[in-house]
Amino acid sequence: MKWKETAGVLAVLIVLLGLPMMLKYWRTVGMIHRYPPNTKVIRLTAVADGGLWTQDEIVGYNYWWRKPTRAGEIALNQGDHVVVQLHSADVLHSFAIPLLHIGPVEVPAGHTVEVAFDANRPGDLTFLCWQVCSPEHSKLQGDFIVKSNGSEDSW
Ligand SMILES: [Cu+2]
Q1: Which of 76, 86, 101, 131 has the highest CB neighbour count under 10 A?
Q2: pLDDT digits over 41-90, tens only?
């Protein structure tokens, strides 16, 4: 009856490995399909330690072991429809794009908050944290750089 044990172990392994893979698939592929075509989905996670927004996925260990990459400048093209998926790796942050009168929206740890806008003019759009979250709070900012498609209007 050795083969039955082997089959049992295999079944457990398939569940253990398959489930996280399915979740990951659902989160990446499944979520993007909810948006209209040509939507640019940008994932931003706020990190209080060091004061930065990052496009890296924070999965716990890299919060402490490896400095996430600062999302200082994010390139967009004029005409992009943008959905920003906001996360917090630690404490309560908030997100705002003052020039577009977006936010501040609260970004609690453990939740995904979405903000959408149309990058219909070229120029720089500063985004920042609106919540005094840490001594390095003022560093929690960056820019969307919208590249012109030829029209002259800017923000
Ligand atoms: Cu802050």
Answers
A1: 86
A2: 999 999 998 999 999 988 766 666 778 899 999 999 999 999 999 999 99
Global pTM reads 0.77
Ligand 1 midpoint to CA 134 (Å): 6
- Ligand 1 centroid–CA 122 distance in Å is 27
- Among the listed residues 106, 70, 62, 76, the one whose alpha carbon sits nearest the alpha carbon of residue 88: 106
How far is the C-alpha of 76 from the C-alpha of 62, rounded, in Å?
Answer: 27
CB 85 within 8 Å of CB 112: yes
Q: How far is the CA of 63 from the centre of ligand 1 (A)?
A: 17
